Amino acid sequence: LLTVTMFLSTLTPKFYFALTVTSSFISGLIFVFEWWHFRKYGTSFIEQVSVSHLRPLIGGAESSPPAPAAFSTGENEASRQNMPECKVWRNPLNLFRGAEYSRYMWVTGKEPLTYYDMNLSAQDHQTFFTCDTDALRPSDTVMQKAWRERNPQARIKAAHQALELNNDCATAYVLLAEEEATTIVDAEKYFKQALKAGEMIYRKSQNCHSQSPQHEAQLRRDTNVLVYVKRRLAMCARKLGRIREAVKIMRDLMKEFPLLSMLNIHENLLEALLELQAYADVQAVLAKYDDISLPKSAAICYTAALLKARAVSERFSPETASKRGLSTAEINAVEAIHRAVEFNPHVPKYLLEMKSLVLPPEHILKRGDSEAVAYAFFHLQHWKRIEGALNLLHCTWEGTFRMIPYPLEKGHLFYPYPSCTETADRELLPTFHEVSVYPQKELPFFIHFTAGLCSFSAMLALLTHQFPELVVVFAKAVSTVSVTGLAMVSPRLWGILRSMGKEHLVSL
User: From which residue to which does the signal peptide run (predicted)?
Assistant: First the structure.
């Protein structure tokens, strides 16, 4: 120690300058490498090495995240690359314009639908309810113009004109049910009239669809109208409390038109079955539609998690689980929640009522905030009904992000998280709603540490260059404090130091 203290007293300002410059350079290189590793792999290299190699050496338990193979069997690289970014989907559970959206606007004075959302609906209506043969029928010609009208009153007026020309114009009844009816009961009456007219037109189209491409296009249009009307009738029955009737209509619809699975009628069925608490039937629907070849949705992922949570949530306690470990059923439930959260990380805040809900839009972006709003709006009651389910979600959902790759554009269990999600959600959701931009992962500790170390050593190098004598005095003072600290820790060591060089220590 005497040699060390003598060595410190002989150091020059040039040495301190060289030391701080070198340390700044080395810490800067470490910081650059740490940042690069984090951007590429989502973890700190130093933390990863300490967990993987150092912790087992000192006897610590290595915690490895569950393997994702059980969930990602069918997700290959080709499907991930071909998955379109930010494709907007029709909301399977969208509300009625006149009976629900308009009533909200009358009460609050806030417009629940954005222009972008309504414009997408107008395009959907023109695609679903029009065809090239509309020019042959005056009522369909009027309705073709009605779907393109921006003013709601103009659309309603055109629908009445179409009914004056043809009392069996199914699409006119559809428009009036959606926009003129101010209650669900009135909407259901219009849809029943639309169903009667639509079935008659559909039978006629079936008889002559093979005669020409125009007749085939007309059959396709009449099929769309019939399916749309039956689905909305099922939704009316669900809203009016006739849930078993709604389930029957949906099941018949899915059986009669199996090729229209992309309309996601099964999501309406899942919600109705959950209301009936028919969990075995819910599991059967999930077994059919939670398939690797079909696009996932928050409804499928979170319903699967809810069923797994239902088996353990009533007796689940985080304190008990931390002591005895998780059982197999609890592990399955936690993994299902992790899977759901990775698919759409915005949902838990709505289910846990950490964020306020708004009316769901007519279109949603899968994995986005708009889908989270639409799911939670209808399914929050089902999570509340199962005792302990929300508690289990609260205890586990945040831990998911330690296992999700970052940035989420890399993907893990699902196709890469779209980078344009936030922009599209802001177009779909009303301006008074604060759009969720989660998930965000904080930078690892060692990136902050190396950045601070690099900045601190660079500042010391600059100070040493500008004020060399002052920095030398400061360094010697620090060494004095260090030696004094050692003396406080060990009186015996202090006695040895005194005997070896009392005068030198006083000079320091």
Answer: none
Say if residue 238 is exposed, middle or buried (CB neighbours under 10 Å; 0-12, 13-18, 19+): buried
How many CB atoms within 10 Å of residue 352?
Answer: 16
Query: Quick one: which of 433, 371, 483 has its CA closest to 87?
Result: 371
pLDDT block averages, 10 residues each, the chain of length 508 = 65 71 78 70 63 51 36 38 65 92 91 92 90 82 90 92 91 93 94 92 78 79 91 95 94 85 85 93 88 76 92 78 77 88 89 92 92 94 91 80 54 70 90 81 63 75 73 69 56 52 43
Whose structure tokens read 């936030």? 422
| Cβ within 8 Å of residue 254, ≥6 positions away | 261, 265, 266, 269
In the numeric block, the tokens 């099922």 are attached to 234
Nearest CA among 475, 240, 435 for reference residue 349:
435
Q: Which residue has the tokens 């289990």?
A: 392
Q: Which residues contact 74 (CB under 8 A, 6 or more apart)?
A: 292, 293
Q: In whole angstroms, what is the distance from residue 140 CA to residue 146 CA?
A: 9
Q: Residues 6 or more apart from 202 whose CB is under 8 A from it?
A: 219, 222, 223, 225, 226
Torsion region of 320: left, alpha or beta (phi above 0 gives left; psi -120 to 50 gives alpha): alpha
* CA distance readout (Å), 324 to 44, 316, 337: 30, 12, 21
Burial class (CB in 10 A: 0-12, 13-18, 19+), 139: buried
Burial of residue 163 (number of CB atoms within 10 Å: 0-12, 13-18, 19+): buried
Cα–Cα distance, 74 to 337 (Å, whole number): 19
- How long is the chain? 508
Structural contact between residues 327 and 313, judged by C-beta atoms closer than 8 angstroms: no
φ, ψ (nearest 5 deg) of residue 358: -130, 175
Residue 462 CA to residue 457 CA, distance in Å, equals 9
H/E segment holding residue 364: strand 363-365
Domain boundaries, the chain: 1-41, 93-263, 281-444
Residue-level pLDDT at 303: 94
Burial of 272 (0-12, 13-18, 19+ CB in 10 A): buried
DSSP H or E stretch at residue 212: none
Q: Are 430 and 111 in contact (CB under 8 A)?
A: yes
At residue 134, the 3 state secondary structure works out as helix
Question: Tokens 């979600």 label which residue?
Answer: 393
- State which amino acid sits at residue 273: L
